[in-house]
Amino acid sequence: MRIFGRAQTLTAAPPRKCNLTQKAVPDIFQLGRLKDQDLYEITVDQLQRLFSEGSLTSLKYVEFCLRRIRTINPYLEAIIEVNPDAADIAAELDDERLRGKVRGSLHGVPVLVKDVRWSSPHHPHI
């Protein structure tokens, strides 16, 4: 990459562990436990392990996420739309897992897609 005529090498810094806890979060935004699992900053690998062990199902996790959206979204207004079939899809993916079919590392993990809009006058809203 060239910046102001000089060659620059960009390297990624090693990931830093976040030391935040829910204690600093207002009560309404604190994340509850699900089946005795602390889901605050849970990773995909940890979710997959819980799914594989049978400690948690995709359906239960999706229902948990939908409840959280219903609780918090009135304050944040961040979620425009959810898939009305999310719970049914999660149940189907749980059935696949029970039959030994796991499609990949995101199997059964709900994904939230952020809608990005340009705010620059050079990029008008479409």
Structure description:
- The chain has 3 helices and 4 strands.
- With 126 residues, the protein is mainly alpha-helical.
- The strands form 2 sheets. A two-stranded antiparallel sheet has the order 1-2.
- Strand 1 and strand 2 form a beta hairpin.
- Helix 2 packs antiparallel against helix 3 (86-98).
- The longest helix has 19 residues, at 58-76.
- The protein is globular.
Care to give the gist of this entry?
With 126 residues, the protein is mostly helical.
Descriptive key words:
126 residues, mainly alpha, two-stranded antiparallel ribbon, 6% strand, globular, disordered N terminus
Helix residue percentage: 25-40%
Q: Order of strands side by side in the largest beta sheet?
A: 1-2
Low-pLDDT sequence parts: 1-12
The global form is globular
Question: Total number of helical segments?
Answer: 3
Please identify the structural class as seen in this structure. mainly alpha
Quote the beta fraction.
5-15%
Radius of gyration: 19 Å
Q: Largest sheet at a glance?
A: 2 strands, antiparallel
- What are the secondary-structure elements, in order, as H or E? EEEEHHH
* Alpha carbon gap, first and last residue: 31 Å
Number of beta-strand segments = 4
Mean pLDDT: 80
Show the helix and strand layout.
Blueprint lengths: L1 E2 L2 E2 L25 E2 L2 E2 L5 H10 L4 H19 L9 H13 L28
Antiparallel strand pairs: 1-2, 3-4
Helix pairs in contact: 2-3
